User: Fold ABC-2 type transport system ATP-binding protein from Streptomyces candidus.
Amino acid sequence: MSTADDGDAAWGAADFIELDGVEKVFDVRRKTGFLRREKRQVRAVDGISFRVPRGEMVGYIGPNGAGKSTTIKMLTGILTPSGGRLRVAGIDPSKERTRLAQRIGVVFGQRTTLWWDLPLKDSYRLMRRMYRIPDDRYAANMARCTELLDLGELLDVPVRQLSLGQRMRGDIAAALLHDPEVLYLDEPTIGLDVVSKSKVREFLRDLNAERGTTVLLTTHDLTDIEQLCKRVMVIDHGRLVYDGALAGLHEVGESERTLVVDLERELPPIRTPLARNVKVEGPRQWLAFPASVSAAPLVAELASAYPLLDLSVREPDIEAVIAKMYAGGADAGTGARIG
Ligand SMILES: Nc1ncnc2c1ncn2[C@@H]1O[C@H](COP(=O)(O)OP(=O)(O)OP(=O)(O)O)[C@@H](O)[C@H]1O
Assistant:
């Protein structure tokens, strides 16, 4: 019999994913001499606590080696925490991995869960058997994913012949055939071209709006977060260092976006109080402005005063935002900054 603490009854709408002081320590052996080995401990996750309500889409970001994948692996039950308490839909993932598997979907951008040599549709048939998906649900979900992810012409193609973007859409469909309530996405847009990225983002937005699927998204692409998540959590060295809105993160990190301006001809560096001129290369100029403000006034000013051919905005990358966040010092934070 399950206790109130372990059973589904214990979770409410306010806390679909719950972590309290979760830790993961790896023992690593390193060769230090001919016959000598040194044992060392790596604290990949170092006392993380957060809650994600049902239906929320949250960004989970941080530099390489910060502990993101380790957290996701603990949330799926692949890894057992070394300490702390973790629940997903009231279930302890490492104790009831199979029961949890029915309720979660996982997409790792750098690896596929599809069978490499089989046509896409055969992978889906295998998943249908693995998850024991009822016929009507399978048919409805296949139809929906095929249409929205544009998979129609790909179903008969072996996975090895798909492009990265096609394979990613195939993987997302595979993670959703059993109607998971929560989806973990680890770098779902990595290596994709602009069109494929926007297709994937649009699909995720619709999924969340229509089905209320809870999404935890790990990415190095700030545009993913900007377009999909109201809330972002930043992890660094295994600790949660920020939990709040993306705009707040920009303020903490004082990060900048860059407006790339193509002029009709070479001109002296553009000077304006709204931006900092960072580079001039022939008729192209780069203007940096605070990421927390709109580009519209700057664009309007340039359009009225300069012969413009084209404009584009470049987002700061996550590493740059986090680096600035640390450079800002301990008192640079907002209420949302942690630690
Ligand atoms: N199985 C393991 N054995 C030993 N150390 C590990 C293991 N898995 C991860 N680590 C270490 O734990 C730390 C966190 O790794 P993790 O893969 O969670 O980071 P990440 O934030 O996902 O990084 P990335 O963005 O590069 O994928 C790193 O120092 C990594 O080397």
Q: What stands out?
A: Residues 1-13, 329-335 have pLDDT under 50 and may be disordered. The pocket of adenosine-5'-triphosphate is lined by residues 26, 28, 42, 44, 62, 64-70 (CB under 6 Å). The chain has ten helices and 13 strands. The first strand starts at residue 17 and ends at 31.
